[in-house]
């Protein structure tokens, strides 16, 4: 990435999101704030229902917020109409989900190409080749998702998220469907995208051994910021688990 592409801080400022569930209101986000600097890897943890996925979806501009703002590279997402928002998201954000969301009838390579705009022209061929090589998937380029392992499918999903060279990657439980070896490989890959390519990553996870790959952990509780944990690059899951439990006051979490 060029310097100008990578200089894209993400600011979440006092965001509120309320859902109506039957006759009651659920305050999924109740004034959450978070800044992610370029080249930073931030994990979001919290008990089930604490608002992690809602926060990630707000950062991606996939939901409208009821208060506060999400600003990426100086652009308030709420000021963009649907078309410009879609283009802004494509140019600035890559999004990865637990369920990979690949198209089963398309090859790995074709899945990676899907989000690329026509304006990328022939550049897309070279980018696909580079991504397949970087992710160790060149040999698998013509395989369909059904012929790939979970870890391989998630690599293809990450390559698809990177096809437009976004500065920021948002990942919702990216290792949630993987065994521990494949999960660790995905974490190593995400860490390398930060260290080698200066991308920013925001990753939702329940798991201390996944969150430990981040620089910092933002802990949510009931839709609010509860605490921040600095991992200091120790990569020690027990330390992270203990610090996390301490922020929750010893509560048992899902
Ligand atoms: N589309 C929706 N309609 C109504 N309520 C919703 C909707 N999406 C989320 N919620 C509610 O908002 C709250 C926060 O949900 P969210 O999915 O963000 O939590 P989470 O921390 O990601 O949970 P989990 O770890 O279980 O995935 C929950 O009470 C949830 O039921």
TrEMBL record:
The keyword Glycoprotein does not apply. Residues 10-247 form the ABC transporter domain. The keyword Nucleotide-binding applies. GO terms for cellular component: membrane protein complex; plasma membrane. Keywords: ATP-binding, Nucleotide-binding, Transport. GO terms for molecular function: ATP binding; ATP hydrolysis activity; transmembrane transporter activity. It holds the Pfam family ABC_tran. InterPro entries: AAA+_ATPase (IPR003593), ABC_transporter-like_ATP-bd (IPR003439), ABC_transporter-like_CS (IPR017871), ABC_transpr_LolD-like (IPR015854), MacB-like_ATP-bd (IPR017911), P-loop_NTPase (IPR027417). It comes from the Bacteria. Belongs to the ABC transporter superfamily. Macrolide exporter (TC 3.A.1.122) family. PANTHER family: ABC TRANSPORTER ABCH.1, IMPORT ATP-BINDING PROTEIN. This is ABC transporter, ATP-binding protein. It comes from Rhodopirellula sallentina SM41.
């Amino acid at each position: 990435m060029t310097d100008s592409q990578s200089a894209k801080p993400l600011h979440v400022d006092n965001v509120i999101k309320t859902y109506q569930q039957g006759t009651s209101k659920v305050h999924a986000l109740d004034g959450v704030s978070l800044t992610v600097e370029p080249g930073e890897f931030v994990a979001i943890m919290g008990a089930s229902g604490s608002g992690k996925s809602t926060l990630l979806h707000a950062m991606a501009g996939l939901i409208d917020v009821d208060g506060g703002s999400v600003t990426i590279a100086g652009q308030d997402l709420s000021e963009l109409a649907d078309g410009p928002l879609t283009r802004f998201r494509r140019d600035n954000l890559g999004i990865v989900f637990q369920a990979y969301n690949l198209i089963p009838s398309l090859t790995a390579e074709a899945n990676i190409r899907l989000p690329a705009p026509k304006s990328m022209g022939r550049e897309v061929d070279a980018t696909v080749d580079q991504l397949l090589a970087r992710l160790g998937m060149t040999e698998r380029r013509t395989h369909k998702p059904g012929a790939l392992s979970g870890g391989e499918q998630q690599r293809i999903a990450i390559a698809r998220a990177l096809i437009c060279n976004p500065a920021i990657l948002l990942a919702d439980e990216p290792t949630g469907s993987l065994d521990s070896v494949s999960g660790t490989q995905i974490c190593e890959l995400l860490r390398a995208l930060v260290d080698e390519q200066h991308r920013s990553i925001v990753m939702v996870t329940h798991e201390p051994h996944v969150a430990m790959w981040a620089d910092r952990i933002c802990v949510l509780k009931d839709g609010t910021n509860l605490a921040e944990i600095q991992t200091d690059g120790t990569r020690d899951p027990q330390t992270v688990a203990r610090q996390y439990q301490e922020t929750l006051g010893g509560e048992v979490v899902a």
